[in-house]
Structures are given as C-alpha cells and as structure tokens.
Amino acid sequence: MNRVAVLGSGSWGTTFAKVLADAGRDVRLWARRSEVVRDINTDQVNHDYLEGISLPATLTATSDVEVAVNGADAVVFAVPSQSLRENLGVWRDLLPTRVPIISLAKGVEIGTGLRMSEVIRTVGHIDPVRIVVVSGPNLAREIAQGQATATVVACIDHDQAIAVQQASANDYFRPYTITDVIGAEIAGAGKNIIALACGMAEGLGLASNTQASLITRGLDEITRLGVALGAQAATFAGLAGIGDLVATCSSPLSRNRTFGVRLAQGMGLEAAQAAGSGQVAEGVVSCRSLRALGATYGISMPITDAVFEVCYHQLPPAELVRSLMKRRHTPE
Ligand SMILES: NC(=O)c1ccc[n+]([C@@H]2O[C@H](COP(=O)([O-])OP(=O)(O)OC[C@H]3O[C@@H](n4cnc5c(N)ncnc54)[C@H](O)[C@@H]3O)[C@@H](O)[C@H]2O)c1
Ligand SMILES: O=P(O)(O)OC[C@H](O)CO
Fold first, then answer.
1. How far, in Å, is the centroid of ligand 2 from the Cα of 5?
2. Do residues 53 and 41 touch, judged by C-beta distance below 8 A?
3. Of 104, 151, 287, best ligand 1 pocket probe by most atoms within 8 Å of the beta carbon
4. pLDDT by residue (tens digit) across 147-158?
5. What domains can you pick out in the chain, each with its CATH number?
6. Which residues bind NADPH (predicted)?
7. Torsion of CA 13, 200, 331, 209, to 10 degrees
8. Which of 127, 82, 79 is nearest to 103 (CA)?
9. Whose CA is nearest to atom 31 of ligand 1?
10. What is the ipTM of this complex?
11. 208 in a labelled binding site
C-alpha cells in the first residue's frame, strides 16, 4: 500500500493521516475548508484541530476529493458518523474500486440504526470484504504527539485487516487484527455514551468508585447489545471495548467526557456543544440510536437510557447516578 487518501481533516482524520505517513505511506488528506488545506501545505500544521503538532512532508492536503482519491491504494473515511451518508452520496462514484475502505467514525446512524460499515455498504455500494474498521483507545492528540497506543483493525476478510495493519503500524501505533466488525463498531459507539455519564459523574464530584462502576456496568450493557447484534463478547474485553472505555472515560482529552462534565456544570446541550469548538461528541447522538437498537433487540441499557434522559428530557445530571442506584437489585 503506497498511497492512502484520508477524507476528513478533523482531530482524528489528521492524526490517522500522520500515523499512516509515519508508517511510510504517501498520504493525501481531504479538507472541506481551504484554510485548513493551506495551513497543512504551507506550515505542515492543522491549526484548527491539532495546534502545535508538526505533520510530515509526505502528508499533503487538498480540498478536491477527486485529487485525494486518485491513484489511492486505500481510502479512509474520517468524518462524523451522522454526516457519512451525505458525504458518501457525493464520494461514491469517485472512489477507486477494489481497494480497502477504512472507517474511523465511532457512531451509529440516527433513524436507521445502521453501523458505519452498513452505511458504507448500502450507500457506497462497497463489498463488506473491503470495509475495515479502526477502533480502540485512540485519543487523537496523544497519538499525534507520538505516545504509544494499540488499536484494532476489524474486517470480515482477515487478509484485508492484515493489509491495513501493516500499512498503519509504526513505532507508536500498534494495530491488532480482528474479524468482528460488529463488535468493534458497537463498542466504539457505546463507549462515547458511557464517557458522557462518567463526565457527568466527574462534574458532580463523584470519584473513582462511581467511575469504575459506570465503566464496568457500561461495558456490560454495550456487550449485551453487541452480542444481540451478532458480535463476539471477547471483542468487548479487548482494545475496542474495555480499552477504549478506560481511555475515553478517564481522559480530560475526551470530547464526550468533557461534554458530560459541562452538562453537570449546568450547561444545556447547545451551550455544551458550542463550548466544544465545533468538535464532535458522538455520544450525544449515539445515545439515541443505541437506545433505539436496544429497544428493538430487547436489551436493557440503563446507563444509555439515563444519558438520553439528561440530553433530551431535561433529567438533571445529579439524578443520573441516583436513578441508576434506585433500580431493582439483580444478580451481576
Ligand atoms: N478525535 C479522536 O480522538 C478520535 C479517535 C478515534 C475516533 N474518533 C472518531 O472519528 C470521527 C471523526 O472525529 P474527529 O475527532 O476527527 O472529529 P472532529 O470534530 O475533530 O472533526 C470532524 C471533521 O469532519 C468535518 N465535518 C464535520 N461535519 C462534516 C460534514 N457534514 N461533512 C464533511 N465533513 C464534516 C469537520 O470539518 C472536521 O474536519 C468521529 O466519529 C470520532 O468519534 C475520534
Ligand atoms: O474525544 P472522544 O470522546 O471523541 O474520544 C476519542 C476517541 O474515540 C478515544 O478512543
């Protein structure tokens, strides 16, 4: 794999482009805004999303998708979940055939309940054997700084996963392969909701035991949903599951956790969104789509329900933990 196109130049798109360039790939990054393209091509910095991080010379930017994907041996989708369908409608006729399509977004589509690989399959008309999902404890800024992390690359075609593993591995980014795409995607979407809950607990001054309880019970409800959808339980005990939950629920760098802190401090949804400088906190929408999936499959998801109530029905964040504590006692 020589040339890779990355479509989407936010925190993770830019960071993953850097990972690929540092792994020896020639990378073209597509950005919507010409200022971002200019900053990357002249200063080798994405000032809007990764201030202070110097990008390699083998990473260049363009605002023309056709230029980005021309001759690419793989294409990475790095836009927020809820915009993927709309973007794919524009991109699909330009995409090279036969190359791997790599999905970075951690969310489930609202309204349809589709995972991102399903949106790619149905809207982009891409064969699932070509769709590779990257997920794990991957806070963008830490990785951009070259701090070591592990991740999973998931594809139903193991050889395709190995190709992406080899193309992205470098001295600070260690990918493991799995074939459980459903598990990787549900874990990635679900952990953002639990991070919102942990952020609210943090904002309320609740400490380690509360956080650990939310992470552990959160893992349980995400795992049960994933298994009902056809995922393997083992995936949730791995990097995409507990690994990403620990990173996201514990780190002040997480936009979802920070969003939860802001809600607990009394901000409404719009104010908390505005305070996030336009960066996406996927859990705010995924609590709706995963809750709906849970209802469809008969899966009880109390933390997701409580986060949904805070976000959309004015449940005070202080009531989130109280309402969970008041639930009927059950075996673990
Ligand atoms: N930032 C991280 O640490 C991280 C790590 C792993 C996965 N992810 C996931 O990757 C995905 C992208 O996250 P990010 O951190 O890069 O987000 P971001 O908010 O930093 O950037 C989003 C990018 O998408 C663009 N964008 C927004 N709406 C768009 C639209 N309608 N059409 C086209 N482009 C649009 C923005 O201009 C920006 O370039 C999310 O699903 C996120 O959960 C993020
Ligand atoms: O900043 P967040 O909350 O979107 O989380 C980023 C990554 O998904 C962590 O793996």
1. 22
2. no
3. 104
4. 999 999 999 999
5. 3-179 (3.40.50.720), 182-325 (1.10.1040.10)
6. 11-12, 32-33, 49, 106, 140, 255, 280, 282
7. 100
8. 79
9. 83
10. 0.99
11. no
Give the DSSP per-residue string, 17-29: HHHHHHTT-EEEE
Confirm if 285 and 82 have CB atoms less than 8 A apart: yes
Sheet-wide strand order for 101-103: 59-62, 26-30, 3-7, 74-77, 101-103, 131-135, 149-154, 173-178
Could you report the per-residue pLDDT of 220-254, keeping only the tens digit for each? 999 999 999 999 999 999 999 999 999 999 999 99
Catalytic residues: 191
Nearest alpha carbon, ligand 1 atom 30: 83
Whole-structure pTM over 0.95, yes or no? yes
Query: What Rg do the C-alpha atoms of the chain give, in angstroms?
Result: 19
CA distances from 143 to 147, 219, 261 (A): 5, 24, 23
> Please, are residues 203 and 312 in contact by the beta-carbon 8 Å criterion?
no
**Cβ(105)–Cβ(189) below 8 Å:** no
| Separation CA 53–CA 18 (nearest Å) | 10
Task: Return d(Cα 202, Cα 71) in angstroms, integer.
Answer: 47
